[in-house]
Design brief:
Oligomer: single chain
CATH class of the largest domain: Alpha Beta
Number of strands: 12
Distance between the termini: 56 Å
Largest sheet: 8 strands, mixed
Shape: globular
Helix content: 40-55%
Number of domains: 2
Number of helices: 15
Structural class: alpha/beta
Length: 344
């Protein structure tokens, strides 16, 4: 059986690691003392909005703040925040055996490439975590929304698939992960809107003005992707091009037609909202920032498909990180974003 190490064991890493450990996989969690101390005391419990409730005793896990604990890993899952990717790459380079595969389960588009540039002797695969995870404290991590892990197709995953499937985490393989990552990023453009609302995701999505903010950000990103010749994958029942229209329909109609989007734990918040509440740096540069950088790369920022809306959201999150507002109403935020779009 493969020995799996999770490097950057925050909410997502602990949830994936916990699911694997609870079903017998040898798991090593490399993370911060703040989280690992709770697991050492209480063990690791994973739950989800559909009723999963599994527990891995602390003694069944290897817990460490030292990357050296990954030296015997057969597979490494990287779940650090995107800003920490360069440091993660150097840490992995110093301890991994050659040919040990690495899967990047991170937000953003290019983290797998950043890791690969440093890890010349290790295959690095792009992965995607489409669901939200909540750290409930005392070693409990809760999957608050639906979704299945997705990963770049590779023959290296033959033995890995069985262990993930047994843990209730089936891996969906894709030949072109870039399209899948962009498809997910379109949905993640809601992260700053959710963070600025101060509301749980389900409450926020139930209000049309907040959804109109999402529609503006997605429509802008779709224009940039078109200019770049990128076709984002469908990661919801709707084609990506339909998402702005879907977000703009009346509340009663949205509630009826978007049951899948609303299959979310009532208390779930975006990771960006959780970061703001905890006083941590957000990943805004690797979500909305990816849209802005792509526009600059293809020159779209100088055309009719610029990025004033996504740029405005970046600025508002930066202000929130510095102690600014995190309680915008939908109408206030929509007015702000429309003004940014009209004044570009």
């Amino acid at each position: 059986m493969l020995r799996i190490s999770v490097f950057g064991a925050g909410s997502v890493g602990c949830y994936i690691g916990g699911c694997l450990a609870a079903t017998g996989t040898s798991v090593t969690l490399i993370g911060r003392e703040r989280i690992l101390s709770g697991i050492a005391k209480h063990g690791l419990t994973v739950t989800d909005y559909l009723g999963r409730n599994q527990h891995a005793a602390a003694g069944s896990l290897r817990l460490s703040t030292d990357p050296q604990a990954m030296a015997d890993a057969d597979l490494v899952l990287v779940t650090v925040k995107s800003a920490a990717t360069p440091q993660a790459a150097q840490a992995l380079k110093s301890v991994l055996r050659p040919r040990v595969p690495v899967i990047s389960f991170q937000n953003g588009i290019y983290n797998a490439e950043s890791l690969s540039e440093v890890l010349a002797h290790n295959p690095v695969l792009a992965g995607m975590v489409p669901f939200n995870v909540i750290d409930r404290g005392d070693g409990v991590f809760h999957q608050g929304s639906e979704g299945v892990l997705e990963v770049q197709n590779d023959q290296l995953l033959g033995g890995v698939d069985k262990q993930f499937a047994r843990a209730g985490l089936p891996l969906i393989h894709h030949a072109n992960m870039k399209e899948v990552q962009w498809g997910k990023l379109l949905l993640n453009l809601n992260n700053p809107i959710n963070a600025l609302s101060g509301l749980p995701i389900r409450d926020q999505l139930s209000q049309r003005d907040y959804r109109r903010c999402i529609a503006l950000a997605i429509a802008e990103a779709l224009s940039v992707l078109k200019a770049a010749g990128i076709r984002p994958a469908r990661v919801t029942p709707l084609p990506p091009s339909w998402l702005p229209t879907m977000m703009d329909i009346p509340d009663w109609m949205f509630a009826r037609l978007a049951r899948g989007l609303l299959a979310i734990d009532p208390l779930a918040r975006s990771s960006m909202s959780q970061d703001l509440q905890a006083g941590r740096r957000t990943e805004i540069d690797w979500i909305n920032g990816e849209v802005v950088r792509l526009a600059q790369k293809v020159g779209a920022d100088q055309s009719s498909c610029g990025t004033p809306v996504n740029s405005a959201l970046i600025n508002l999150i930066r202000q929130a990180e510095a102690g600014g507002r995190q309680d915008w109403t939908g109408s206030e935020l929509l007015l702000q974003l429309r003004a940014a779009k009209n004044n570009r």
